[in-house]
């Protein structure tokens, strides 16, 4: 059974293997950067990017022109160091790195949980405790917080360690989603804005056509959701229920809605369907 540290190593290797594919991120980088820029406050504010990694999906020069501070958070310290080293001196001055940070709060305990060494109280309290700890560790809150297609990476770690037949698998998967959105709420200042972006399907599940327009991608997302050709943890309908049913999230955010969708060529072999949701912090 893989361990939490094994999963950290896998994420490090994934970031290293992507280094040769910067150009394939062009469209995805343009969309995600535009999302962060559109949420910027009128006066210089602060941006926190969760799951920044190599930063291939963000134009950091453009972001520091709108934000006085850009905080980059990831489990892989080496990836963030490389990302900062690629920037101009002026841009580097505006970047604040936070690594290694386990945004799931699970990697140091999921092996124990896999042996059923977990109480109901620990499982049910994980989301609140992790969100509070991350706010203190990263020193929030911020004007804008962007979840940059990292939910799927964290969920993959749960799948790798537990396996889908484990009796706690669905409970831990739900707990991870709750933890992530509670973290977004905790890190975003009132009247600020949380931005959630995730890959939701891939060319392994459906023959995604690079010629599909962004407008058509929204319609395609609806069709793939209806026909169960999406990653179920990222299905916007499922996340909408989560935000509606949890009292903390219901008080923090407006109802969950898809605001944009696009295709992401992640290297030469795989294309992902990505969508974003803008969540004003009440």
Model description:
Helix content is 46%, strand content 20%. It has 282 residues and is an alpha/beta fold. It has a single domain (4-276), classed as Vaccinia Virus protein VP39 (Rossmann fold, 3-Layer(aba) Sandwich). It has a seven-stranded mixed sheet. Strand 6 (260-266) and strand 7 form a beta hairpin. Helix 8 runs antiparallel to helix 9. The N and C termini lie far apart (42 Å).
Topology:
Layout: H1 4-17, H2 26-38, E1 45-50, H3 60-64, E2 67-73, H4 77-85, H5 89-94, E3 95-98, H6 110-114, H7 120-138, E4 142-148, H8 151-162, H9 169-187, E5 188-202, H10 214-226, H11 236-245, H12 247-252, E6 260-266, E7 270-280
Parallel strand pairs: 1-2, 1-4, 2-3, 4-5
Antiparallel strand pairs: 5-7, 6-7
Structural class: alpha/beta
How many E strands?
7
Q: Round the Cα radius of gyration to an integer and report it.
A: 18 Å
Gap between N and C termini: 42 Å
Sheet-strand content, in percent, reads: 15-25%
Name of the CATH superfamily: Vaccinia Virus protein VP39
């Amino acid at each position: 059974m893989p361990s939490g540290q094994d999963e950290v190593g896998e994420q490090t290797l994934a970031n290293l293997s992507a280094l040769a594919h910067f150009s394939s991120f062009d469209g995805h980088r343009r969309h995600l950067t535009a999302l962060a820029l559109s949420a910027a406050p009128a006066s210089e504010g602060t941006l926190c990017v969760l799951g920044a990694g190599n930063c291939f999906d963000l134009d950091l020069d453009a972001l520091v022109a709108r934000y006085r501070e850009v905080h980059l958070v990831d489990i892989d310290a080496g990836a963030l160091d490389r990302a900062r080293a690629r920037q101009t001196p002026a841009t580097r001055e505006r970047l604040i790195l936070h690594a290694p940070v386990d945004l799931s709060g699970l990697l140091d305990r999921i092996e124990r949980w896999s042996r059923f060494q977990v109480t109901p109280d620990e499982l049910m309290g994980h989301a609140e405790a992790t969100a509070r700890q991350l706010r203190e560790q990263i020193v929030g809150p911020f004007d804008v917080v962007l979840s940059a297609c990292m939910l799927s990476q964290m969920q993959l770690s749960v799948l790798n360690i537990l396996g889908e037949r484990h009796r706690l698998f669905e409970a831990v998967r739900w707990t991870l989603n709750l933890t992530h959105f509670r973290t977004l709420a905790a890190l975003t200042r009132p009247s600020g804005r949380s931005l959630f972006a995730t890959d939701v399907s891939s060319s392994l599940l459906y023959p995604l056509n690079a010629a599909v327009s962004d407008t058509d991608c929204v319609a395609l997302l609806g069709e793939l959701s209806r026909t169960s050709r999406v990653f179920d943890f990222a299905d916007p309908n499922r996340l909408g229920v989560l935000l509606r049913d949890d009292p903390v999230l219901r008080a923090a955010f407006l109802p969950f809605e898809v605001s944009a969708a696009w295709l992401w060529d992640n290297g030469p072999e795989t294309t992902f369907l990505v969508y974003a949701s803008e969540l004003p912090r009440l």
